[in-house]
Write a structure and sequence with these properties.
heterodimer; A: Heat Shock Protein 90; 6 helices; B: Transcription Regulator spoIIAA; 6-stranded mixed β-sheet
Chain lengths: ~180, ~130
């Protein structure tokens, strides 16, 4: 049995969910989600500091998703192009931002190593890593700079929670949850 | 010098230079998906400005949000300012952050530790 995206999405949409979305991840969609969440946070009267942190992290994680999304994973015709999932939920006073997307099995090791590395670093070490990448690495043509995850880890002070679900042997569904 | 004025949008900051006062101002949000395109005119303008800068240039950076794609471009802008400061004119960077916004203060301190230009961290109190 392969991983069931619809079941998974249903599960994610349970509880105190501010925003849940599944479908194509486009620039327009990101704008819409950011606008929606900004309005919700304003209505919820969330304190400025948390609101800013959450908004910043959302920008980063949605743009990360946008830059890394697979246009059309081979052999997965049942799903629309640039498919991804986004959910923002409140859980016992914390916010949880979850993103999920297809990833080719060949890219898993690199990503997993990066996440584990970031998870292993202290606050000071993350700061040094951020400054090193900022000062030494060029921006990619897509505009990403390899700083997104480090920045998120620095701002939240929390560890990444993630999984790779086997979808069809060559593609996996990658889920990343950020706690704020 | 050509005047510099870029209007702000929901995802990009306003940029302006007041030649009479020698004040360069970057204000608003900087969260475009690809920031290189946005910052290129400013970096190019600074390149020209390096040859004939004002005696002193004050740079006010007041950002509400900026993403990591912008953070590299902002560093490029600061590097240009650094060469002006090392060369023909004095530069001071005023980094504004809202009360309690430790992330923004820390971001300013990161730049301060990389760029050899005097920085002033200014807290905006409501």
């Amino acid at each position: 049995m392969s991983f069931n995206i619809n079941e998974y999405y249903k599960e994610l949409s349970n509880g105190d969910v501010l925003v849940a979305y599944k479908g194509s991840i486009t620039s327009d969609l990101i704008n819409e989600l950011l606008e929606a969440i900004e309005q919700k946070l304003e209505k919820a009267d969330e304190i400025g500091k948390t609101r800013k942190k959450l908004y910043n992290i959302l920008v980063e994680s949605l743009q990360n998703l946008f830059h890394h999304i697979e246009e059309h994973p081979e052999g997965i015709d049942e799903i629309e192009p640039k498919f991804g999932i986004v959910s923002i939920a409140k859980d016992k006073g914390d916010y949880k931002v979850t993103t999920a997307n297809f990833i080719h099995s060949s890219k898993i090791k690199h990503l997993k190593d990066k996440l584990d590395k970031i998870n292993s670093l202290s606050r000071e070490e993350l700061k040094d890593m951020y400054k090193f990448i900022l000062n030494h690495q060029k921006l990619s043509a897509k505009g990403g700079g390899g700083l997104g995850l480090v920045d998120i880890a620095r701002k939240t002070g929390n560890k990444f929670d993630y999984s790779f679900y086997d979808y069809n042997g060559s593609y996996y569904f990658f889920r990343l949850t950020i706690t704020i | 010098m050509e005047p510099l004025s870029i209007a702000g949008t929901a995802k990009t900051p306003s940029v302006s230079f007041d030649a009479a006062k020698g004040v360069l101002e970057i204000k608003g949000r900087s969260i475009p998906e690809n920031s290189i395109e946005f910052y290129k005119p400013l970096v190019d303008w600074l390149e020209d400005y390096t040859d004939t800068p004002n005696k002193t240039t004050k740079v006010n950076v007041q950002l509400e949000y900026f993403n990591t794609s912008s953070s590299k471009c902002i560093l490029d802008v600061f590097k240009k300012l650094e060469s002006i400061h090392k060369g023909k004119g004095e530069v001071q960077i005023n980094w504004y952050y809202e009360e309690d916004d430790e992330d923004m203060l820390e971001a300013g301190e990161d730049y301060e530790s990389i760029i050899r230009v005097p920085f002033k961290m200014i807290e905006i109190v409501d």
